[in-house]
Structures are given as structure tokens and as C-alpha cells.
Amino acid sequence: MTDHGRAALTATGPLSGTVRVPGDKSIGHRSLLLGALCDGPVAVTGLSDGEDNHATARVLGQLGVRIERDGDRATVHGVGLHGFSAPDGPLDCGNSGTTMRILLGILAGQPFEVTLVGDHSLSRRPMKRVLEPLAKMGLEVLSAEGGTYPPLRVRGRRALTPLRWESAVASAQVKSAILLAGLFADGDTTVTEPGVSRDHTERMLAWLGRPPAPRPIHVPGDLSSAAFMLGAALLVPGSRVTVADVGVNPTRTGFLDIIRAMGADLREGAAREANGEPAADLEVVASNPLRAIDIAGDLALRALDELPLVATIASRAAGTTRIRDAAELKVKESDRIEKTAEVLRSFGVKVDTHPDGLDVHGDPDAPLRAGDVDADGDHRIAMCATLLGLVAPAGTVVRGASTIASSFPSFHDCLAALVP
Predict the structure, then answer these.
(1) How far is Cα 415 from Cα 179, in angstroms, rounded to an integer?
(2) Which candidate in 24, 305, 374, 378 is catalytic?
(3) Beta strands 357-362; 319-323: pairing state
(4) What is the Cα–Cα distance from 73 to 91, expressed in whole angstroms?
(5) How far apart are CA 408 and CA 171, in angstroms?
(6) Backbone phi and psi for residue 221, each to the nearest 5 degrees, phi listed first
(7) Domain regions of the chain by residue span
(8) What's this model's pTM, rounded to 2 decimal places?
(9) Which of 7, 99, 154, 307 has the lowest tally of Cβ within 10 angstroms?
(10) What is the rounded distance in angstroms from the CA atom of residue 56 to the CA atom of residue 273?
(11) 283 strand-pairing partners
């Protein structure tokens, strides 16, 4: 069926108000997966209703894990390390690469054969970085499209071989898969990375212990989702927006550091902590002009998922913002370097692409044109286009906007609540 697109909102004045965003989907995935590894029920609060977290719950159900949900609350009836059962069909991970990659770490320790599949977008995402170390631990890869892409057919075993792995890239998904497989190994498993990736798995393992024991888990608001509400405020002059109860894990706050460096008036409330994860209320007051900056190294890594949004915001900052060391963007739901450039050019923004990033030539006073964007199955690209539509002339159309439901199902409602 042809996707004729969704018309973007146009802001007629400053945005204002307070919103709550869904729970952090990265922590949500781990609350379900590690909860399943516990020997008993685990109470989870703040869980996102996004399709990605539903995909994790669905495949765990196929593996014999009962999960009861009531809004943003869930009870995961953990089966322990060895209580999983062989599924009677393929495990469909939908659009969620996190589900597939981290789940492989658990499946490596299960002595049965499993087939993992995904949607069109996930089927284009390489799995070699996860399969290679897990194979050294004992996971048998029976088949993979082109040797590395889903669908994957694998068989695990007991017990796994412990591993000391030096990763060529900093990837929380690869690290998490190896660490969870390490729970099934007789000995210590360690991962060394060239940079510091998200540490949600390490924090949750520290909270639950080894082997994981049932303890309550709270999922704070997703910083990657909150970033879009804060970004919307930065794009519309005079806005004042607060997002409540947002996770501010230091491995995730690169976006906040970036917008501060660009001149944003960002105010952070007192931090509170649950199961090792800090959270705070975040407020942006769009009173300062934004300026271009250079983003690379550890800063780029800590804001990797938000870099398309950073480029979007940079289009209205004075000067050329240079983003480097972000080649990992090319193997996300889409090639996010090229797709981000495509979005910006659709609105009339000048942008240059590089193998590991972009140069965005920003101008807060330059007139935009209404965009026409095909998100190509990538939720973050769809949201970036929607935000630029706020400050472009009426008529912007975003095709493929339904994919936003995979991570931020209330995105349009939250945005509408802020737009005058």
C-alpha cells in the first residue's frame, strides 16, 4: 500500500508545557531480558509501550517466560538461567536490533535451535559483530543471510566458554550480548572497548547480582525521546519546555553536553536514582542563539542515537557544525548519515556528508521550504523531519511516520501538547 505520508505540525508561536516521555527503551529491553533470567517474579515500572519493547516481551513469551502488563507496569515471571523452552516457531524481533542482538547472548546458553527474524529494516542490519564473539563462546550459527544478516538460525549449548573480548567498536549491544552469555560460562568473561558505550547492562547486573535475583526495576524516561521534545523547543524561538523523570546516565548524556556547548539554556533538576540509573527533570528555555560546534570522539559516541537530531538542530544554529567519528550511524535502521542529509536537503539546508559524519551549514535566519521526506523505516529520521516541519512553511509531509511507534508511540501527542 502506498504511504501518502503524515502532514507535520507547524508552530504558530513558542512551545510551552511539561510532558512525560515513554520509559527508556534500552533499559526496558534489559529489564525484560534480565528479569527473565531471574528465578522468580520481577516488578517493572515505567516500561515503554513502544513496539520495540513489545517485540522483546513477545519473543520471551515464545521462550516460555510469562509477562503480565498493565500500562507502563509489568511483572516478568523469571525462569532462571536454565528455565527457557524451545519455541515452536521463529522469534520475530520486528524492527528491534537491540532485541535480536542481546537475546543472542541468552540463546547462546540454551541447548536448542532457534530461528530469529525481523522486519525489512532489521533484515538489512549486520549481526557479525555479535555472532563472531558468541561463536567463540559456543553459539553455533547454522545459517545467516549472506553470512551475517537475519534471518539467523542458531543453536546454543551448555556450558559456554568464557571469553576475553577486545571489541573493535564501542557497542552496548555487542557488549551486552557477550556479558549475558558470560552468565552461562564457567569462568570470567570480559569485554574491552575503544570507547565507553552505554552501561545499562552492567548497572542492572550489579543491581540484580549473579546469578540474577528478583528485585524491582524502574525504567526512567528515555533521554533519546526527551531529546526530541527539548530539540523542538530549541528550534522554535521563545519556547520553554520541561520533560519530567528522564534518565541521565552519564553514558547517555552526550546530547545534553552538545546542546549546552551550542548555547542552549538547559536546566537540570536534582537527580534521583533507582536500580543504579539516575534520573532528573530537564527544562529548555529557548532564549539564547545557538552556535555551531565540532562533535567527535567520545562526545559523538555518547550521543550516537541523537546525532541526526543534533544535525537537525544545527541547521538553525549560526555556522557550520561538523560531526565526525559517527560511522556507526551507517548501520542503524537506515544509513543515518545519508538519510539525515536527505532530510535536511529536503527543507533547503546545505549539508555535506562524509564517511563518518556530516557538515551542517546552519543559518537561523535562512528561510526553509516545506519538506517531503521518506523515513524509510527509521523512526528517528521521521521525528527529525517532523521537528523541522515546525519551523518550515505549512505543507511538510513525512512518509513512513508510523515507524515512530517503534520507540516513541506518544511522540505526536507530546508534541501537539506543546504546540500553540
Answers:
(1) 37
(2) 305
(3) antiparallel
(4) 24
(5) 22
(6) -60, 145
(7) 6-23+221-418, 26-218
(8) 0.88
(9) 7
(10) 25
(11) 242, 267
Per the document, the length of the chain is 420
State how beta strands 357-362 and 140-145 pair.
unpaired
CATH number of 26-218: 3.65.10.10
CA distance linking residue 48 with residue 52, whole number of Å: 9
Indicate the SS3 state at residue 176. Answer: helix
d(CA 282, CA 260): 12
3 state DSSP class of 304: helix
Report phi then psi at 46, rounded to 5. 85, 15
What single letter denotes the amino acid at residue 325?
Answer: D
Q: Grid coordinates representing 65? A: 517466560
Are the C-beta atoms of 217 and 204 separated by less than 8 Å? yes
pLDDT tens for the 420 residues of the chain, in order: 346 678 889 999 999 999 999 999 999 999 999 999 999 999 999 999 999 999 999 999 999 999 999 999 999 999 999 999 999 999 999 999 999 999 999 999 999 999 999 999 899 999 999 999 999 999 999 999 998 999 999 999 999 999 999 999 889 999 999 999 999 999 999 999 998 899 999 999 999 999 999 999 999 999 999 999 999 999 999 999 999 999 999 999 999 999 999 999 999 999 999 999 999 999 999 988 999 999 999 999 889 999 999 999 999 999 999 999 999 898 787 899 999 999 999 999 999 999 999 999 999 999 999 999 999 889 999 999 999 999 999 999 999 999 898 889 999 999 999 998
Distance of alpha carbon 23 from alpha carbon 50, whole angstroms: 9
Whether 222 is a known active-site residue: answer no
Q: Which of these CATH numbers, 3.40.50.300, 3.65.10.10, 3.30.1490.190, 2.170.190.11, describes 6-23+221-418?
A: 3.65.10.10
The set of cell numbers assigned to 147 is: 553470512
